[in-house]
Design a protein that fits this description.
The complex is a heterodimer of chains A (about 375) and B (about 350).
Chain A: H1 2-18, H2 20-25, H3 105-114, H4 119-122, H5 133-161, H6 169-193, H7 207-213, H8 219-243, H9 248-278, H10 281-301, H11 304-315, H12 321-346, H13 358-366
Helix pairs in contact in A: 3-6, 5-6, 5-8, 5-11, 6-9, 7-8, 8-9, 8-10, 8-12, 11-12, 12-13
Chain B: H1 73-76, H2 81-90, H3 109-126, H4 128-138, H5 145-169, H6 196-216, H7 225-255, H8 260-276, H9 286-297, H10 303-327, H11 332-335, H12 341-349
Helix pairs in contact in B: 2-5, 2-7, 3-5, 3-9, 4-5, 5-7, 6-7, 6-8, 6-10, 9-10, 10-12
Classes of the chains: A mainly alpha (about 375), B mainly alpha (about 350).
The structure holds fe (ii) ion (2 copies).
One fe (ii) ion binds near residues 126, 129, 158 and 161 of chain B.
């Protein structure tokens, strides 16, 4: 006991000696030098609010709107400010505009903020009424897999954010809204699964999640898998779920999720287009990624769990799931393939049906 | 003949526990309300490496794609995550439309320069609190999605803070000024911490705590309704971020007492830096402290008056810091002489 006390005492003493400067600092304010005054790259800037307030994009005037192709600064120097010399770098790995940029990022950021959404209070939970057990099980299964999609959004976006340099802050800011959207989807899907006598389902196969999370070579590559492939499918799926919602609560959840996903798709397509326009080789890289991705996609879609659950949801129960439900499911897959391949072609990436996995090619042909 | 699907339905027997019937409370259907049955069980150690939602049925063949480094509950948990998250959702605001930008009128040059220098500093440092939590989110198992969601809301808040100060700098005939290097890749910085609690003690408790005090006293340095709104709204957000840190530290100290001594070391470090470091705008760094003194005093010619107010802010920062650390369960350090805060308070009162 005595030993411990002595130890603490000596420790405290040494802390006190080093703390002398710290203590003095509380009351000290040196005579002002004002060395920071009159230092600005561009003064006399007066951005006025417009009809929709003062938006992020409005600030891009004069040098503040000059977005360089490369951003070498590895500190948090705000774009347009005078950098301080000698600041140890933070190690941003994404420093090329072509690797992140989309002109719409600033607008998407403001739009996301305007569309406030709190699932706790904005979803009319009271409209959820008991459903037949197979139907509830199927809905819960779909929601579980959607939760995992949202989780994949969260983990992918947040893994990249801190690697993006400060010079492209509009994109960082938009992505902050995108991962926040994903958090709310994760939350809303879970809430719906747990509020009607059901529960969560079986976890998804995770092959596509793996593909997305492992695309760590570059952000554009991650966007290709996360947003172009998975995003297009999620949009299609949400549209169908919104149509086959069983109450206003589900309807409102899917509608809100669709809006968020639509913003994500806008960013993704514009970014990929920008990226390709600045580096033609990107197109070939994406074609390779998609060729590999298609095979993984087909394997995941061959999993019977999500398919059966969706057939039940679309048919309103077990009875008509194998025929009526399946017909709607197939139509959904055809819609997905039409949109997916259409988007690829819009980006200038030719998709030869002969090179597609068989099931995907069949859906495309029938679309 | 339309194809007919041969249904297996085996998955219906492999789902998570059944019969969850969460009911909305007064605040709607909150995260706290869905802690029903097995779904409210949060494991002390998470073996979930596939990213499945907590409570879902596991597939034995699933890939281990999570790669999570935060898998122990005490490393990230806090008791009121649900409340902080729901609060964040209810209090979302827009810097485009919730700040009355029209209320800004031209200001004397020294005041506008001080305002722009402070705004430059804040634009610079705000998103450290976005970048860093984001990185930790991606490393945290979804079994702890409640704290993760609070951090996701924080990343969102910080994006808005970064943008509201940039807006202010460019709205009134000024512009951005010189960056300060307030966040940098040096040992012991928020960015480089390799442990979540270490990072949180530095970011949430000392860093954002100091900024929160300043935002709360925003009325003293605001020259129009826009600036008042800006500080008030940011203070609301910061209060949640700080609360996360305090509540997490409390949970950590109660559930992992073997880490108390180590955490005390982080606090030693934080206290040495609280005024000397470059992340506290009221600290020693000339750019931000001089501009604050000008704003608080009402101009360069009333600098001394500004300094008195600045010292008052510092006192309040120290008092509030002490209160938070006590609330987190580390108050002993103020009573046993380990912390210099009491002496700092005495020195600043002299
Ligand atoms: Fe902030
Ligand atoms: Fe914050």
């Amino acid at each position: 006991m005595v030993k411990t006390a002595a130890k603490t005492d000596s420790k405290t003493k040494s802390k006190k000696t080093t703390a002398r400067d710290t203590v003095a600092s509380a009351a000290e304010v040196p005579k002002p030098g004002y060395h920071w005054m009159n230092r600005s790259n561009q003064w006399d800037t007066r951005v006025k609010p417009g009809k929709h307030g003062l938006r992020l994009g409005d600030l891009n005037v004069g040098i503040y709107g000059e977005i360089p192709e490369q951003w070498q600064d590895q500190t948090r120097n705000p774009r347009g400010a005078i950098p301080r010399k000698g600041v140890p770098p933070l190690g941003y790995s994404i420093r090329d505009k072509a690797d992140v940029w989309a002109d719409s990022a600033a607008d998407l950021y403001e739009e996301a903020i305007q569309r406030k959404w709190a699932p706790a209070t904005d979803v009319p939970w009271g409209t959820v009424k008991p459903l037949s057990e197979p139907l509830e099980r199927a809905i819960c299964q779909v929601l579980t897999e959607l939760c995992q999609y949202a989780n994949c959004d969260v983990e992918t976006i947040s893994q990249w954010q801190h690697q993006m340099s400060y010079g492209y802050h509009e994109v960082k800011q938009y992505l902050a809204t995108a991962s926040f959207d994903a958090a709310r989807m994760h939350e809303a899907f879970r809430k719906r699964a747990l509020c009607n006598g059901g529960g969560l389902g079986l976890e998804g196969p995770g092959e596509v999640n793996r593909m997305i999370l492992e695309s760590r070579g570059g952000w554009s590559e991650a966007v290709t898998y996360l947003m172009l492939m998975r995003g297009t499918f999620t949009m299609t799926l949400l549209r169908y779920l919104e149509k086959f919602a069983y109450n206003d609560a589900e309807q409102s959840i899917y509608a809100n999720a669709l809006q968020a996903k639509a913003r994500q798709m806008t960013y993704a397509l514009e970014h990929l287009q920008y990226s390709i326009a600045h580096d033609e080789e990107r197109k070939a890289i994406m074609a390779t990624l998609l060729f590999i991705g298609d095979r993984i996609w087909e394997r995941e879609m061959a999993d019977h769990v999500l398919r059966e659950a969706l057939c039940i949801v679309f048919a309103g129960g077990l009875e008509k799931a194998p025929d009526q439900g399946y017909a709607i499911y197939q139509k959904m897959q055809r819609d997905f393939m039409r949109d997916y391949v259409g988007t690829c072609e819009w980006l200038g990436i030719k998709r030869d049906p002969a090179m597609l996995p068989e099931a995907m090619a069949d859906y495309l042909e029938a679309s | 003949m339309e194809p007919v699907l041969d249904m297996q339905l085996d998955w219906m027997d492999q789902q998570g526990s059944w019969g969850a019937a969460a009911e909305p409370s007064k605040q709607g259907l909150t995260l706290a309300d869905i802690q029903v049955g097995a779904y409210g069980d949060v494991p002390e150690e998470s073996d979930n490496m596939t990213g499945r939602p907590r409570g879902a049925g596991a597939r034995p063949e699933s890939y281990r794609i999570g790669g999570y480094s935060v898998r122990s509950k005490h490393e990230i948990w806090l008791e009121n995550a649900s409340f902080l998250y729901e609060e964040a959702l209810q209090r979302q605001w827009s810097s485009a439309t919730d700040v009355p930008w029209d209320s800004i009128e031209p200001l004397p040059d020294d005041i506008e320069q001080a305002e722009c220098q402070l705004a430059t500093f804040l634009t610079e440092v705000e998103f450290v609190a976005g970048d860093v939590p984001a990185r930790w989110i991606s490393q945290t198992t979804p079994d702890y999605f409640e704290p993760r969601n609070v951090l996701l809301a924080q990343v969102m808040d910080e994006a808005r803070h970064m943008d509201v100060f940039r807006k202010r700098a460019l709205a009134n005939g000024g512009g951005l000024m010189g960056a300060t290097g307030g966040t940098a890749g040096v040992v012991g910085s928020i960015d480089l911490a390799r442990d979540f609690t270490e990072m949180s003690s530095r970011l949430h408790i000392s860093g954002e705590g100091a900024v929160l005090t300043i935002f709360r006293m925003g009325e003293l340095m605001a020259y129009n309704e826009a600036e008042k709104a800006m500080y008030r709204l940011c203070a609301q957000d910061e209060a949640r971020h700080v609360a996360f840190g305090v509540m997490h530290m409390r949970y950590m100290s109660e559930t992992a007492p073997e880490r108390r001594e180590e955490i005390d070391c982080y606090l030693d470090e934080a206290e040495r830096q609280i005024l000397a470091g470059s992340q506290n705008p009221a600290g020693a760094q000339a750019e931000s402290s001089e501009s604050l003194a000008i704003l608080l005093g009402g101009g360069k010619d009333q600098y001394d008056e500004g300094v008195n107010k600045l010292i008052a802010i510092r006192r309040r920062q120290l008092q509030e810091y002490q209160k938070r650390v006590r609330s987190a369960g580390f108050g002993e350090r103020f009573d046993n002489g380990r912390s210099p805060i009491k002496e700092m308070l005495a020195a600043s009162a002299a």
